[in-house]
Amino acid sequence: MQILQANNIRKEFGSLVAINNVSLSLEQGQVLGLIGPNGAGKTTLLRILATVLRPTKGTVKTLGYDSAKEYLRIRKHIGYLPDFFNLYNDLTLHECLEFFAKAYQVDEDLIPQRITDMLKYVELEHKRNDFIRHLSRGMVQRMGVAVLLIQDPELFLLDEPASGLDPKARIQLRSVLKKLSNEGKTIIISSHILTELSGLCSHISLMNKGNIVMHGAVDEIQQKVFSTKVICVSVLENCQRAAQLIKEFPNTEIRTVEGNEITFEITANDTELAALNSHLISAGIKVFNFGEKKTDLEDLFMEISTEE
């Protein structure tokens, strides 16, 4: 099921072109990482998708609804968490969720259980009667997700949710987002902290200067950007001899030889990699690890940015 379809979105602020003819689509259950440096246009794009801003040109359809004409319908199905948001500091967590549940017109009979479920979901049930003003930054971020969850949206739009969080708070927030992903929720999450998105996204869009430079499934983009594979080999002994044997194999280039580990680049298919592994073993090299080093989002970002 298609959740989102944006076609040729353009947003101008006077002479400034913040978004330049951007198109993208999302199917149900996909998690899109919107990656780019500050000023790339990520926030502006998210605000357009959230119906907070209207594009200068282009169309957006969310769950089949036209954002220009049916934005109120769309808002019932999305959860938008901006980079900076405010909750009412003088309310307890329970009161805050009750307020938003009523604002979202959740059935009165469902509200008490929904509040309990959401607090458990973001692991804040022990803070139920605490005031918002007493929460840490990380807890406020998780509470923001709970506010979105209270209406059970189908599409989440999260703008830099890990910004300003300490490592523990990031891990806790990531755990919540991972649960949403595992439940099949559709998510767009923007960040310039690339490690926060690794392992979470099914798709990525790299933005720069208002343009989407590259978009697609993570593994497809990895194959497109990197024509070679990076392989790590660990041996028990004779590391230098192993490195020499690898170097003699076609289409290989040694990256590093450290201790008993060799890292090298190779243009080869799985059959050829298996042949190289067998070649090492036949030569008397005791190999105890032979595997591809997976490319993370930071590697992708740097490679694509360099090409640009």
Largest sheet: 6 strands, mixed
Look at the helices and sheets and give the structural class.
alpha/beta
Strand residues, percent: 25-35%
Number of domains: 2
Task: Explain the overall architecture.
The chain is of the alpha/beta class. It folds into 2 domains: 2-223, Rossmann fold (3-Layer(aba) Sandwich); 227-307, Alpha-Beta Plaits, CATH 3.30.70. 34% of the residues lie in helices and 30% in strands. The chain has helices at 42-49, 71-75, 93-103, 111-121, 137-149, 167-182, 218-225, 239-248, 270-282, 297-307; strands spanning 2-13, 16-27, 31-35, 57-62, 65-66, 78-81, 155-159, 186-191, 203-208, 211-217, 229-235, 252-258, 261-266, 287-292. The strands form 3 sheets. It has a 6-stranded mixed sheet with strand order 6-7-8-3-9-10, sandwiched between helices. A hairpin with a 2-residue loop joins strand 12 (252-258) and strand 13. The two termini are 33 Å apart.
Give me some keywords for this one.
alpha/beta; globular; 308 residues; 14 strands; Rossmann fold; 34% helix; Alpha-Beta Plaits; single chain; 2 domains
